[in-house]
Amino acid sequence: MAPKKHKKMSDVTVQDNFLTAEDFSTLKDIFLHRETHWFLSNGIASESEVNAKQYMDPLNNWMLTHSVYNNMRPHSSGFDRVADLILPKVTEHIGKDFQALTRIKVNLYPRTEELQIHPFHVDSNQVNWRGCLLCLNTCDGYTGFDDGTEVDSVENRAIFFDATERHHSTNCTNAPYRMNININYV
């Protein structure tokens, strides 16, 4: 399935079948395991409550998260396995420009009857921050960018982008949840 594109955004690149089928299955199993801890995040994007009210029903303005790595240290017992599976492919994709990992966070957005478009946000205001969003399931959710580009949520699809640029997520209506891994690096 090709990504939707309303306008060309040269800084967004999409790679389908990012990991081997075996590695992807292993990665997905880490977060679907019954002993994986999920944490409630009241508010999808932290830009502002006013911004959030413009975009979505306040009753749906929540998600579950699992922090794998942040502030230069692992936050999850699965960090080593996740890093071993993902980082070689990320560094292969971006090449010599990879300097350091800054964050790995897994987002789980619950299904609703109507698609919820979340507020625009940036992952960081720090110069040179980059992002890689790895979709863990296929659904009718997507990631939207400020220029109108929308990239569908397709299992094992990686979306590379400038993490300092505005983008937004959605949840889904045709699967129990939309789950992705947000990897930030410099």
Q: What do you see in this structure?
A:
By secondary structure, the protein is an alpha+beta fold. It has one domain: Jelly Rolls (Sandwich). Strands 1, 2, 3, 4, 5, 6, 9 and 11 form an 8-stranded antiparallel sheet that branches. A 3-stranded antiparallel sheet has the order 8-7-10, with no helix packed on it. A hairpin with a 4-residue loop joins strand 7 and strand 8. It starts with 12 loop residues before the first strand and ends with a strand. The relative contact order is 0.25. About 5% of the residues have low confidence.
List the helices and strands and how they pair.
Blueprint: E1 13-15, H1 21-32, E2 39-42, H2 49-55, E3 62-70, E4 73-74, H3 79-94, E5 101-110, E6 130-135, E7 142-145, E8 150-152, E9 158-162, E10 167-168, E11 177-185
Antiparallel strand pairs: 1-9, 2-3, 3-4, 3-5, 5-11, 6-9, 6-11, 7-8, 7-10
- CA-CA gap between termini: 30 Å
**CATH-derived topology:** Jelly Rolls
The helix-and-strand class reads alpha+beta
* Nearest-integer average pLDDT: 89
What's the structural domain tally? 1
